[in-house]
Amino acid sequence: MRTLPVTVDDAPATLVCASSMGPEDSCLDLLATTPATTVLWVTYSRPPSACIDQFRAADASGSLSVIAVGDLPTPDDDDVTVKSVSTPDDLTGLGITLSQALSANDDAVVCFDSLTTVLRHVATETAYEFLNALTGHLYAADASAHFHLDPAAHDPETVDALASLFDAIVEREDGEWAVRRRRLLRQ
């Protein structure tokens, strides 16, 4: 099987289904080969400093901007832009912040960590509508993104509903990444 980044490199929106308790190497895999000029990292549960450390450890190219959602400490780092959205259920504010960042940065990639946390704060229908609009913005900006979801934390109907919005779904099977893709409209 090809490596994860090569397998999903042309998918504008990828859903990464993995346990939040397991090893998290998908971000490192995806960011290490991303030819983006800007990585936009949305974090709900990890402090921005952890995202910055992981980005630097991946030796990813380009610059990093972090959008911290909720009450997360903001690091003092001159090389990284950190914006905040005050409450986890403010998807409108998050959408505006992400849209502005996508408009301001050519050739961007988004790491969205995590949809599991989003679903703790909003209904599935609200998250679906938000993701539907956001994936539209990604297509319009010619950007790509991967979104993390712990499938064990949700019922199969929720996972299936959200998965329908994505071009590729990657999951752990026997310690290896398995990829399901749908036909891309851009081809």
How many domains, as an integer? 1
Backbone shape: globular
CATH class: Alpha Beta
- What structural class is derived from the secondary structure elements? alpha/beta
* Spatial strand arrangement across the major sheet: 4-3-2-5-6-1-7-8
N- to C-terminal separation? 22 Å
Strand content: 25-35%
Main beta sheet: 8 strands, mixed
- Would you list the SSEs in sequence order as H and E? HEHEHEEHEHHEHEE
Q: What is the strand tally?
A: 8
CATH architecture: 3-Layer(aba) Sandwich
Radius of gyration: 15 Å
CATH topology-level fold name: Rossmann fold
Flag low-confidence runs.
none
Determine the mean pLDDT: 83
Short key terms for the protein model shown above:
187 residues; alpha/beta; Rossmann fold; 8-stranded mixed β-sheet; 8 strands; 25% strand; DUF7504; KaiC-like domain-containing protein
Explain the overall architecture.
Helix content is 36%, strand content 25%. An 8-stranded mixed sheet has the order 4-3-2-5-6-1-7-8, sandwiched between helices. It has 187 residues and is α/β, with parallel strands linked by helices. The protein starts with a helix and ends in a 6-residue tail after the last strand. The chain has helices spanning 4-8, 26-32, 48-57, 91-104, 115-121, 124-140, 156-163; strands at 13-17, 38-43, 63-69, 81-85, 108-113, 144-149, 168-173, 176-181. It has one domain (4-181): Rossmann fold, CATH 3.40.50. Helix 4 packs parallel to helix 6. InterPro entries: DUF7504. Pfam families: DUF7504. This is KaiC-like domain-containing protein.
